[in-house]
User: Which sequence fits this backbone?
């Protein structure tokens, strides 16, 4: 893809530039070890790992792709109904787009963005002068906003074009 501009950076220089000039980056392609570190850093720069989605893509579709929030399972807050589900939603939205379900992804993302514009937030971000929602109430606010578009950054309506799934048959663990 010669039309795509890129830079080749060493991981420590990338980390520094993520902190000092995060607007420089659209996509970072790296090995899993460095990606794990840089996504945590990028999430912190963006306001917290509660907003950091992640994808390990196999663009040739000769193997599976994986989508997950950067924060993982967050065992320290498990069962307390205080988690910010935004990163999980954004990871799911990325998966839907990868599968060609563009309209479904846009519907969910627009509902999420509309909810955020309303000032609805969990305890890890947002206006501290307004009460934080728990995970369930935050999710219900997003669900209530399905079909609504945000005033800023609305995702366009694009038709779904589902991809043919790749089926893998493993005789043994490679």
Assistant:
């Amino acid at each position: 893809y010669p039309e795509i501009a890129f830079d080749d950076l060493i991981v420590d220089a990338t980390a520094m530039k993520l902190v000092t000039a995060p607007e420089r980056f659209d996509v970072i392609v790296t090995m899993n070890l460095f990606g794990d570190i840089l996504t945590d850093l990028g999430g912190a720069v963006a306001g917290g790992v509660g907003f950091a989605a992640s994808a390990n893509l196999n663009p040739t579709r000769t193997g599976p792709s994986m989508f997950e929030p950067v924060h993982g399972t967050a065992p320290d807050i498990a069962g307390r109904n205080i988690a910010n589900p935004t990163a999980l939603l954004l990871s799911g939205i990325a998966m839907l787009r990868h599968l060609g379900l563009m309209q479904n992804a846009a519907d969910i993302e627009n509902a999420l963005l509309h909810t955020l514009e309303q000032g609805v937030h969990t305890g890890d971000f947002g206006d501290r002068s307004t009460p934080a929602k728990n995970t369930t109430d935050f999710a219900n606010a997003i669900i209530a906003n399905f079909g609504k578009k945000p005033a800023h950054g609305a995702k366009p309506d694009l038709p779904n074009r589902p991809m043919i799934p790749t089926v893998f048959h493993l005789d043994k663990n490679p």
Notes: The CA atoms of residues 102 and 147 lie 15 Å apart. The chain has five helices and two strands. Residues 102-117 form the longest helix (16 residues). The helical segments are 11-20, 32-46, 86-98, 102-117, 135-144.
